[in-house]
Specification:
Blueprint (H helix, E strand, L loop, with lengths): L6 H9 L14 E4 L4 H10 L4 H16 L19 E5 L13 H10 L1 H8 L2 E6 L2 E7 L1 H6 L2 E4 H7 L1 H7 L10 H9 L4 E5 L9 E6 L6 E2 L2 E6 L4 E9 L7 E11 L4 E8 L5 E11 L4 E8 L4 E4 L2 E4 L5 E11 L3 E4 L2 E4 L5 E11 L3 E10 L7 E10 L5 E10 L5 E10 L2 H9 L4 H12 L1 H4 L4 H18 L4
Parallel strand pairs: 3-7, 6-9, 7-10, 8-11, 9-11, 10-12, 11-13, 12-14, 13-15, 13-16, 14-17, 15-18, 16-19, 17-20, 18-21, 19-21, 20-22, 21-23, 22-24
Antiparallel strand pairs: 1-2, 3-4, 5-6
Length: about 475
């Protein structure tokens, strides 16, 4: 391979083929199928050898799931039949591999198709991969160990560091906030726990990669990143799945906690296939003078619902949320970002860029709330939509709650169409129609890409190019 090869780039190849791919079959150590019941939840906890507090948390979440109604604010999710998701937990290996040679050959082949070994060796400080419901590969470079950074599969962290995990797990994103958050906590499996000690600055990104290998499967990984006082870390997650004849459901969770003067950058490039319903719950808490950055590149999936959110709990804390959503085809992207200013002198910036083509629907759903007493709070929201044809649509639903008179909050939104003259000019210079469209889209999001890590810009740019080369840009 030449140039930048990484999981997000190559996941586009797996996620968008015209032909259906066969599900992955391997000798699973444990597989739990059937309805969502107390027995299933108890069995997941038993298989994972969890402490009793985690088992009780799961059962409390199950009770909430059974009581809560389906979300009514999201268009399209009423078509999800949770009873149709037959595989609720799947453990493909007995324990995670720590070296390449330990992986079973059928799982190793997935890595080879994604180019992960090279990406890991060249760019990453640590790497975790979740296949279906469990972590199958976990490797942290010696550098992380010397720095004292803890990076473990989530289930292993629950057993080895129960007090530390319990302090944060489920405390940032509540169990009963909606039906799908409750479902996640009842069935969660896989994911990553990262703890960065005080004053430690991790010089290279760490990465988690999530892969759904079967249709009618649920994936419920949980990622928890804790940055202690004065520490810094960049976390990249990539998501992919082959194209199935029937859908699968992804209901993941990300919780971030940035202590005083800590910095966390959380980067996502997700390019699920068109048969994935993607519901992603993401929230961070920032203490005094801490900073949380969300970078969300959402390209694939049948439905995507994600609103990276930050609670600015400490004085002088700040957050940036940059979201790119591409609905290329008759698919729905319901994305946005939410911020709560709960302390004085806090700052937030939200930039949303959506691209709709071939009948795609993009929805921006955002919220900025400034609590009383958050004196001197500042927030700016920029929401831009690019529509490439007559069939596509874009909607904007901003919500702003200001309870502090000294706050300054701004919101601006634009909607535009692709310029036919610009497209014609590029085509006369030898570019194909698809290449010209991808170039225009990349130019449209250039203000988001400016200043971002080179690896992320390369990955996201390549995914967008492949998206338009494969599917075209105008229906």
């Amino acid at each position: 391979m030449s140039g930048m090869s990484g999981p997000a780039e190559l996941s586009a190849v797996l996620g968008g083929g015209e032909e259906y791919l066969e599900p992955i079959y391997y000798r699973g150590e444990v597989e739990l199928r059937g309805r969502i019941t107390r027995d299933i939840v108890e069995e997941i906890s038993r298989v994972k050898r969890e402490p009793d507090w985690m088992r009780r948390l799961r059962l409390r979440a199950l009770e909430l799931f059974e009581k809560l109604p389906m979300p009514r604010w999201i268009y399209g999710l009423e078509t999800i039949d949770l009873e149709e998701i037959s595989t609720l937990y799947l453990r493909p290996v007995e324990k995670p591999a720590s070296s390449w040679d330990e992986l079973p050959s059928e799982i190793r082949s997935i890595y080879e198709r994604l180019g992960l070994p090279e990406a890991y060796a060249r760019y990453l400080a640590g790497l975790t991969t979740v296949l279906d419901s469990e972590t199958v590969y976990a490797s942290a470079k010696e550098m992380l160990r010397k720095l004292g950074v803890i990076m473990l599969p989530m289930e292993e962290a629950v057993r080895r560091y129960p007090d530390l995990v319990k302090k944060y797990f489920g405390r940032i994103y509540g169990l009963g906030e909606h039906k799908f958050s409750a479902l996640h906590y009842a069935l969660w499996s896989g994911g990553v726990f990262v703890y960065v000690p005080r004053g430690v600055k991790v010089p290279y990104p760490v990465e988690a990669f999530f892969y759904v290998g079967r249709e009618l499967e649920g994936q419920f990984e949980h990622t928890l990143v804790v940055a202690d006082e004065g520490s810094e870390i960049t976390f990249i997650e990539g998501c992919s799945a082959p194209r199935f004849k029937r859908y699968s459901f992804h209901d993941g969770m990300v919780e971030l906690y940035a202590h005083r003067r800590a910095r966390i950058s959380f980067i996502t490039v997700q390019n699920w296939s068109r048969n994935i319903v993607n519901f992603n719950n993401k929230r961070g808490i920032a203490e005094d003078y801490a900073y949380i950055e969300w970078l969300e590149g959402s390209i694939g999936s049948r439905y995507t619902v994600t609103y990276p959110s930050t609670i600015l709990r400490g004085r002088g804390s700040s957050t940036t949320s940059l979201v790119v959503g591409i609905a290329n085809g008759p698919y729905i992207k319901d994305t946005g970002s939410k911020v709560v200013h709960a302390a004085p002198e806090t700052r937030s910036r939200i930039v949303s860029k959506s691209i709709s083509s071939r009948g795609g629907v993009n929805i921006y759903r955002g919220m900025v709330q400034v609590n009383k007493g958050a004196r001197g709070a500042r927030s700016h929201v920029q929401c831009d939509s690019l529509i490439l044809d007559e069939k596509s649509k874009a909607y904007t639903y901003p919500v702003i709650h200001i309870m502090e008179p000294s706050a300054e909050v701004g919101h601006e939104a634009t909607t535009g169409r692709i310029n036919p003259e610009q497209l014609f000019y590029l085509e006369t210079r030898g570019l194909s129609s698809e290449e010209a469209k991808s170039m225009i889209v990349l130019g449209y999001i250039r203000d988001i890409l400016r200043g971002l890590p080179l690896e992320y810009v390369a990955m996201l740019s390549r995914v967008i190019q492949l998206e338009f080369e494969r599917y075209g840009g105008v229906g």
